[in-house]
C-alpha cells in the first residue's frame, strides 16, 4: 500500500487557514481509519495478530511498534506538531487527558455501518471496526471530560480543529475484494458520501467550526490493487502506471464529496469546511517520487522483496513472516519522514 507517511506529507500540503499567519487551535479531534490511527487497537499492548504491532513498524520515529500503519508518524502526528500540540492520544486509552486532542480513528474503519454491507452480502468481507457513527459516539462520550457543560464545550470546540477522514477507502475495498462489479460499487458512492457529510453535520451540531474532510486516495496506484488486478492490456493503465478504472472510482467519490461539502458550507455560513486533497498529492508523488525525496515509486519498501513488480504479496505483508524492509526506509514508500520542517514550506492555503 502507499505509505501513510506520504499521506502525512500531503495532508500538510493541503490543510491550513487563509491569511498571513497560521491559525492556532486549542485541540485537534480526528476521526478516520488506518491512515490516521495512532494506536486504538494497542491501548493495552498490541495484539500478536496485528501486523502493525510488529517490527519494523515504528522503527523510524518511535523506536517501537505503536499500532500506527507506518514506521513513523501519521497524518495527525505531523499536524499536531505543526500546530504546537501534543501527539493525539488514542481515544480508547483510559485515564488520558483529551483536552488538547483525541484520536478516534481505528484501523479498518468504514464510513458505512455493518448493516449496509450485510444487506449486500458483504458482512464477512470487511473488518468493520469502529465505523464513523461509532467514532462520533466515542467522541461524545469523551466530551464531558474534555470540556464539561454545553456552553464550555461550544467555546472549546469552536477553537479546535476537526478532521473527518479519510473515510471511504475500506468501504470500497470490501465490495471490490468481495467480488462485486465496479458498476455495482459505483452505486455505493452516493451512500458513502452522504454518510460522511452527515457525520460532518453531526460534528457541527456539537460545536465544531473548523472541519477538514479529506477525499480518498488513488486506489489504482496501490501496489495491492496493482498486484491483484494487474492487466496485460497497457490501455488499462494511466501514464503513471496506475489502474485507470480504480482511479476513476476514487475521482468519482471525491467529486461527489466536494459537492457535498460545498452544499454544507452554504448551509452553515459560520463554519469553515475544508477539503483535503489526498488524491492530487499522491498522484504527484507517484508521478515524480524523487521530487518528494522518495526512491521506490510504486514498489513497496516493506513487503515481499523481489516478488512481482511491486514487492507485494498479501501473505507476506509488512510485519509478517516472509517480509522484509528496505535498508533506507526514509527513501521508501512504506515509511514516515522524520523532518517536519521539510514539509511546512509546501503548505497550501485552502478554505474560504
TrEMBL record:
CDD domains: SGNH_plant_lipase_like (cd01837)
Tree of life domain: Eukaryota
Leader sequence segment: 1-21
Glycoprotein found in the keyword field: yes
UniProt GO MF annotations: hydrolase activity, acting on ester bonds
Regions annotated as coiled coil: none
Pfam families assigned: Lipase_GDSL
Keywords: Glycoprotein, Hydrolase, Signal
InterPro entries in alphabetical order: GDSL, SGNH_hydro_sf, SGNH_plant_lipase-like
Family, as annotated: Belongs to the 'GDSL' lipolytic enzyme family.
Protein name: Uncharacterized protein
Species of provenance: Triticum turgidum subsp. durum
